[in-house]
Each structure stands twice: as structure tokens, then as C-alpha cells.
Amino acid sequence: MRQMENRSHDIACAITGLQKAFGHNRVLRDIDMSLPSGKVTVLMGANGAGKSTLVKVLCGVHRHDSGEITLFGQSYAPTSPRDAFRAGVVTVHQSINDGVACDLDVTSNLMIDRMIESRGVFLSDRAMRREARKIAEGMQLELDVRAPVSSLGPADRQMIAIARAMVRNPKVLILDEPTSSLSINEAERLFKLIDRLRQTGVAILYISHRRSDIERIADRIVSMRDGRISGVFEMKPPDYERAVTAMLGHAMTDVAIGKMDRGTPMLVLEDVVIKSDRPGISLTAHRNEVIAITGLLGSGKSLLASILFGLEAPVSGAMTLNGTPYRPKNAAGAIRSGVHYSPKDRASNSVVPGFDIADNLTLPFYKRLSRASLLSRTRQREAARGMIERLGIVCQSETDPIGILSGGNQQKAIVGRWMSQPCQVLVLDEPFQGVDIKARRDIGAHIRATANERATIVFVAEIDEALEIADRILVLNEHALVGEHKNQNMDLASMMTQISGRANSAMRA
Description:
By secondary structure, this protein is an alpha/beta fold. The protein is built from 18 helices and 22 strands.
């Protein structure tokens, strides 16, 4: 028997008996779900549960095979995203670049719908920029509206994509992992916008697994598993742990942090200044140790990670690797020295769309997998299959195109790329970005299981992620190291004060 939700007169979108298959693969199985007006419905599901397919049906990318969707009581079956827009269903996708046109400036991105609707009518550049500034101000965005979007960072691009969605005055707004690239302040700005939209009666479908997001904004949680609705939780605040259990099919389990026998020092930083006029950073990363470095967006996490991999140079200071001076001039030099680095934002910096899974997994290590200067496909595929098995990457084979994988499985592949070959130091920048809880646990468990092979430094914005994986947690604020904590009976309030910078403000006062 299908699990049915309580329905009421204020339902914006109702889904009944929805089914969708790709060949023999049934992705959506008898979905019954409703989106009430003025409510935030959080949708949770592991990779492969069917979340993305459901969203693509709602926004007109895919046609469903059977079942019914109604919008305010009227039949709804969009044949394209533009059909969905016209009906008032607007989606901000997880992949940031799907929501912006990087080759255009900020004004053109914010006004693109107006430009399309006004074909043949002269539009003043000055008037368009004025209108774009109003839109940006409404979102509290401090941007030069003449700047090309390609020059902006992921957080600003994400806010532009969300601002574009607001211009369309949505009746149903779908947000897919919208805070994955946002700082705490930017996320709170988004949450206040969601609060305003809720008051005006907009139905919001919010896809996320971040506990902090869900506890802040959710009115209800719907869990999916294996293409079906596995749980609906209407209470306020929603029961996060029960929702996760319904999503996974079993109770939540953490990555075990056992007693760590720290090995020899591998990477030592002595007064490394990453930004002028800021204090130097000193730290030692040992073999068989996982260090998490956390901080707000803009705290310097990604800059420090880039310096460790030779993509940026420090202002001053010294680094040693296994007792030898270390200052790589580029990524190739870092790899030769035994330092591997997985950057954040896989869509822009990591995934090679035209390559298959095996090529994406082994790309930096072709020489190691070659014989007589020729890549050995046998060795490459063996290496790829091993990592696919260890990380639980869901695919038919290593020769599948990387693009057919879900976002979480793509993230596993990119992290697996840098774990597929031995190294002395593994640097991971936001390795859990945009993945569900199960994928996060899979990645974290493999990092822990192989920690004795190297020193591991993981840069994360979410405290929960640091607590799950790290032996020590370091805090960056304004490009300086402001705190260090063993992952044992920690004072979380003290850590949060350091992360936010309030401790520094008090000291300066």
C-alpha cells in the first residue's frame, strides 16, 4: 500500500501515483506527495533515491510515465522548463552553473527573462542596470552589476541564481542544496527570504541534508528511498533523526573516531602567512592523523589548501614535508612530492564531462599507470574498479560516462581520484559538498580506514562534518589560526565563538 499524505484545501502542488522509468530502471515508484502553500517541505533522500528525477519532472525536464500532478487543482504536465516557469514553478538547481550564464554580466543574468520577453523592443542599458541594482539590493547583494558572472565566486553565483528565481515571482519554488556554497551570513539571508516567501503563500520544496538548514526552516520533511516516499514528518520542529532513518532504512551511524596513535610528522608549517598583515599559521600534520580545518566562507580555508598544493604561494613562512623543505611551484610539483588535493566545486574544478569514470578517477596518474609511455588500460581499469568498490560508487561499470552519475557519486569519484594512489599528504577541500548523509559516511569511512597511509587535512564549513571525521579540529578566522581542539569532549560553544570571530572581536575590544 502506498503511503499517503494528509491533503488539505491549501495544497499548491499535489502528486499522485507518479512513476518514471529509464529503460528497465524504475526511478520513481508510485510517488504520493503534496506541497502546501506557505510551507517549507524538505525533501531528503540518498543518492539514487529519485530526488533529482522528481525535481526534473516538476520543472519540465522529464515527462512522467504515469500518475498525476496538479497545480492549484489544475492538471500540470510541463513539457519544458519554460512551461514550468509560465505556470509559476521555478527551480534553482544544485549545479550553480545551471542557474547562471557565466559569459554574461550580472545585469544580463538578472534581467534575462525581461530581455527574452521584450524581443524587438529597445531596452536601455542604463534602465536595465538600474532595475538589476534594485533586484540585487532586494537580495542584499553588494555586486557590481556590470561584472561578468565568470569573475565571481561560487557563493555570489548561487545568490544570483536565487535572485533570478525571485524575479519570476514563483508560486512553487524548488531549491536544490542552495546553501552548499554559502557562508553562514549568506545562508541566513536566504532563510530570511524564505521566511518572507512563506508568509506570502509560496510553496517551497527544499532539498537538503544539512541539519542546521532543516532545523532553521523546515515545516515538514519528506524522506525518499529507492524511488518511493519512505516517511512524512509533519511535526515542528521536524524529527531529523527519524527522517534520516526513513531515508536510509536504518538508524543513523557515525564514522567511528577511535583512539588515534599519531605517527611521525609529515607536513610542518612554520609561521606561514597566507594574507598580508595577518599572523602566520603554524601546524604539524602527522601520519595516521585526520585534521579538519573549519571556518566561515572567506576565512582562508580554500586559500590555505591551494598553497599546500602549489596553486598559490604564501606571503612568507616555511613548510617542510617529511623533513625536507617544501614549496611547490605548481600542482605537478606538489604531486611529485606526494601531496594530493581535491578542490571544492566539482562541477567547475574537477569533473571532466567528456571522460568516463575510469579516466576521471585516474587522470592525474596516467604516467604511473603507463608502460613504455603508453597508458595501460588494464591497469587503469583495475585501479578504477578498486576505488569504485571501496567508495561504493553506484554505476554499471568504470566505462560509464561520468555525467550519468548522481551528484553524490560524482563527488565520490573526485575524492576517490586523489585517494586512488599513495601519497604523503591528502588535502581535501569540502569533500562532502552537495552529498547526502550516506555518501558522506561512505567517503568519511574510507578516509578514516586509510588514514595510516598518510597525513590527511580536510577543509569543511560544517561542524558536523568535522566532528564525524577528525582527530583534531583547527579553526580559521580572517586568514589566521584562532583555535585548536582535540575531537574529544569539546566545548562546542567555544569553537563556534572562534569560528564566528566573536572571540577575536572581544580581544580587540
